[in-house]
Design the sequence.
DNA sequence: AAAAATATAGTACGAACGTTCGTTTTTCTT
DNA sequence: AAGAAAAACGAACGTTCGTACTATATTTTT
C-alpha cells in the first residue's frame, strides 16, 4: 500500500518525463535544508532560490507544501535505506546485521549525510505533536525501522546467537536511544566524542546479549 | 554573568511594575506552545491571540522575537529546575539524587508538564544547527544539567557508593539518551510503554555501577 | 517537422510574519 | 487626587508565506 519504488510514480498527478530528474534534485536539496531548518521551516521560496528555479515552477512538482514535506520524508527514507539498511544486509548473521545497522547509523551522523544531523530524529520531534499526514508518514518509517531491528534480535535469539533472555523491544529502544543521543550531542554541543560514547554504549548493550563472548577489547 | 535570578531584573529595559506578572503569563503560554510548535514556529500573532493580548502590547515585553525565544528558554529552565532538579536535592546520597533526577525527568514527560514533551529535547534539536544567542542559551542550560549529573556520579564514586570503574560522562550520556528516547517515543508514537522501557534501562545502568547491590526487583 | 504533452516562468492574491509608531488606558507614586 | 510612568492598544509598514492562474519554453510523441 505504501511502497511505490517500482513503477516510478508521476510527480503528483499525471506527469511522466524529465521532470523526475528535476524533482529528485529538488528533493535532495530540500532534505538537506529540512534537516537543518526543520520540515516546517523549509520554505518554497528559499528552496526555489537554492535550486535556481522559480517558486511557481518548483511548486508545480508538488501539489502543496504538505505534499512536499511528505515527498521529502520519503526521499530521506530512501537515502537512509541505501546508506544504512541495505549495506547491513550483506552480513549473514542477524546479530552482525544489527551491529552493522547501528554502526552505519552512527557513521551516517558522523559523516553528515544530512548537514543538520539525523533527518528522522529531527523531524520526528518536530512533528511529534502535529497530527496529520506528515506525522503519519514519519511514524510509518520509524515503525518500519524499529520492526526491522527488533526482527533481527528475534532471529538472533532463535539461532541461539543472542541470549534467550534478551528482550528485543527493550534492546532496540536502548540502541535507538544511544544513536539519537549522539545526534543530539553532536548537533547541539558540536562534540565529536558523542560518537565514541554512543559506540561504546552500543557495544556494551550488544555484548550483554551476545552468546559468543567476544569481549575482546 | 549569566545568572540573574536574584534581583528580579526588569523586563528588558527599565520596566518595573505589574508587567512582570503579565510577562510571566505570556512566558508560561509561550513555553507550552513552543514545546509543540517549536521555538521558531512560536509566533507573536498566535501567542497574542492565545493570551488575549494585542500583538504590539505583547511584543513590547520583549525587544524582538529572538529575545522572546531566549526568555522562553530561561523560563522553561526555571520550570525544569523547580520540577526536576530541586526536589531531587532532598535526597542525601548523591546516587539517590541522581536516581531522583532521572525519575523526576521521566515523570515530567509522563505528566506532560509541557504538552509537546521535553522542551529542551525539542528545542535542542531544532536549534542545533542554527548558530546564535538562542542556541547558546540552550547549550548553556544543557551543559549545566549534564555537569550537575556528572558531578553526582563523581561524588558517589568518591563516597564509595558507586564503583570506581564508573565513567561519569559515559553514564550520564546513556541516562540522558534513555530519557530522551522516552520523549521521542511518547511524542511520535504516543506509546506509554516508552516510560517503562526508559525506567528499566535507567535502573539497569544505575544498578551496574552501584556498589550496594540492591538488585531487589 | 508538427502536434501534443509537460515543465518552467511570470504575475498576482490574501494572509501572516516581525516590527514600528503614536495614542490611549491602566497602574503606581507622591 | 494629581501627575508621572509603564502597559496595552490599533493601525500600518515592508516582507515573505503558500497558492492560483496564465502564458511561454522545452520535451517527448507522432
Sequence:
Amino acid at each position: 500500500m505504501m511502497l511505490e519504488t517500482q513503477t516510478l510514480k508521476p510527480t503528483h498527478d499525471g506527469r511522466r518525463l524529465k521532470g523526475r530528474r528535476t524533482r529528485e534534485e529538488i528533493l535532495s536539496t530540500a532534505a538537506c535544508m529540512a534537516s537543518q531548518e526543520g520540515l516546517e521551516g523549509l520554505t518554497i521560496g528559499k528552496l526555489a532560490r537554492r535550486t535556481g528555479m522559480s517558486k511557481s515552477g518548483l511548486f508545480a512538482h508538488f501539489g502543496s507544501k504538505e505534499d512536499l514535506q511528505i515527498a521529502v520524508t520519503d526521499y530521506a527514507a530512501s537515502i537512509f535505506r541505501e546508506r544504512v539498511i541495505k549495506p547491513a544486509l550483506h552480513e549473514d548473521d542477524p546479530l552482525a546485521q544489527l551491529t552493522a545497522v547501528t554502526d552505519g547509523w552512527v557513521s551516517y551522523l558522523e559523516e553528515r549525510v544530512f548537514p543538520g544531523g539525523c533527518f528522522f530524529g529531527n523531524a520526528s520531534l518536530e512533528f511529534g505533536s502535529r497530527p496529520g499526514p506528515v506525522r503519519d508518514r514519519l511514524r510509518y518509517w520509524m515503525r518500519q525501522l524499529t520492526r526491522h531491528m527488533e526482527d533481527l534480535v528475534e532471529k538472533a535469539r532463535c539461532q541461539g546467537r543472542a541470549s534467550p533472555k534478551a528482550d528485543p523491544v527493550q534492546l532496540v529502544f536502548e540502541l535507538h536511544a544511544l544513536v539519537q543521543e549522539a545526534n543530539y550531542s553532536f548537533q547541539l554541543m558540536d562534540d565529536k566524542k558523542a560518537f565514541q560514547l554512543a559506540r561504546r554504549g552500543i557495544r556494551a548493550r550488544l555484548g550483554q546479549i551476545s552468546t559468543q563472548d567476544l569481549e575482546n577489547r
